Amino acid sequence: MIGKICVVGLGYIGLPTSLVFAKAGFEVVGVDVSERVVKSLNAGVIHIEENGIEEIYEDVCSRYSFQAKNSPEMADAYIIAVPTPVNEDHTANLDYVVSATRSIVPYLRSGNVVIVESTIPPRTTDDVVAPILAEAGWRVGDEIYLAHCPERVLPGNIFRELIENNRIIGGYNPISAEKAASFYRAFVRGEIVLTSSTSAEMAKLMENTYRDVNIALANELTKVSSLLGVDALEVIELANKHPRVNLHSPGPGVGGHCIAVDPYFIIEKAPSATPLMSVSRQINNSMPEFVVEQVGKLVPPYEGHLIAAFGLTYKGNVDDIRESPALEVVHQLMKRGYKVRVHDPHVQPDHCPFRIHSAEEALNEARCLVILADHYEFRYIDPDWLKGMQTPVVLDTKHCVTFPSGTKAALFNYGNLHLLRNVEPMVLR
């Protein structure tokens, strides 16, 4: 073994990170407060969905060194990879980061490296984490080295990106950055860039804020196009033929624990200086209501009409429903009087606030099918499923559905929303 690493938090980032470090030759102890997660992993059962994770976990357990435990151990480096949710006022909830930092304090020894991978507001490393270590008697940056190394991976492709993507290492001081980088150099093939902890925090947040603002622009284009009789999807395709334009895709909103959250961490630090970020968040948060309004043009909510909702995750081909706009769409549909049956082949029933139905069950007697996630399974909708619907109408908010030739159904997406005002008699007769 080339050293020992203790990873606190075994979720969507912590577990893959643990396995990659183990394959690089480190002895790894993964820590999680959930006894269910620890027992599941030690029994060989993975609690998250990620491409290739079962095979990698089996390989690590048979050939390398990884254990899941409920409490930290002495190690050479500690990686904090816990969630940072937002409070109701959209400020960052740092309770998990604080708790994780305090949990490792009894095990620290001189020369240890503490790395925060959790996404955090600017200056959290210096103003929140460092003082906890200092209160325990350590000279931060001298006896204990502290850094922020934000993750920047795409769910569904995490293992490749952990290795191949460039990594930013933000140190509490320069020596802390270098000490932290020495661990990542064991497996990262991309460029490793050293900077300050605050610059690393801000860079991570801006990466996702850029995407949030771009998506808001596409979503606003969708709303404008529906009023003007324009095909928003065609407009985006045409605009993106310009060599310096890259409009993102519109959808039912923005979710996940990155794009939908990270802008708030900047906004809370400088609310008067972030009007563009704030308005972008408002636009993207308004999209579930916009989707429900389009459903209302197809199927008025009186008499408890049945709607089938396909896809609850925040993006396609993952099982992650954190901050998913699909959940808000379903809630709003129910609030307006619709009966809703949901189907998602990737979501475990015990992780979902709604009952999960099979595709056939969800569509039986439904007045409309709403696509809210672009899972591969939804790109081909079996025409036989649609035969059980009261009215075979599909509202595709992700522009992923293609009907087989001859399918007798009406398909609406963000390219033809302006037609919805003319279809109500057809749908309800």
Can you lay out the helices and strands and say which pair or pack?
Elements: E1 4-8, H1 14-23, E2 27-31, H2 35-42, H3 53-63, E3 66-69, E4 77-80, H4 95-104, E5 113-116, H5 124-135, E6 145-148, H6 158-164, E7 167-171, H7 174-184, E8 192-196, H8 197-228, H9 232-239, H10 262-267, H11 275-285, H12 287-298, E9 306-310, H13 325-335, E10 339-343, H14 359-363, E11 368-371, H15 383-386, E12 393-396, E13 410-413, H16 424-428
Parallel strand pairs: 1-2, 1-4, 2-3, 4-5, 5-6, 7-8, 9-10, 9-11, 11-12, 12-13
Antiparallel strand pairs: 6-7
Helix pairs in contact: 1-3, 4-5, 8-11, 12-13
Highlighted features:
429 residues, alpha/beta, Rossmann fold, N-(1-d-carboxylethyl)-l-norvaline Dehydrogenase, domain 2, eight-stranded mixed β-sheet, five-stranded parallel β-sheet, 16 helices, globular, disordered C terminus
Question: How would you describe the overall organization of this protein?
Answer:
This protein is an alpha/beta fold and 429 residues long. It has 3 domains: 4-199, Rossmann fold; 205-283, N-(1-d-carboxylethyl)-l-norvaline Dehydrogenase, domain 2, CATH 1.10.1040; 287-428, Rossmann fold, CATH 3.40.50. Helices cover 38% and strands 14% of the residues. The strands form 2 sheets. It has an 8-stranded mixed β-sheet with strand order 3-2-1-4-5-6-7-8, sandwiched between helices. Helix 13 (325-335) links the parallel strand 9 (306-310) and strand 10 (339-343). 45% of the residues are buried. Mean pLDDT is 93; it is low at 424-429.
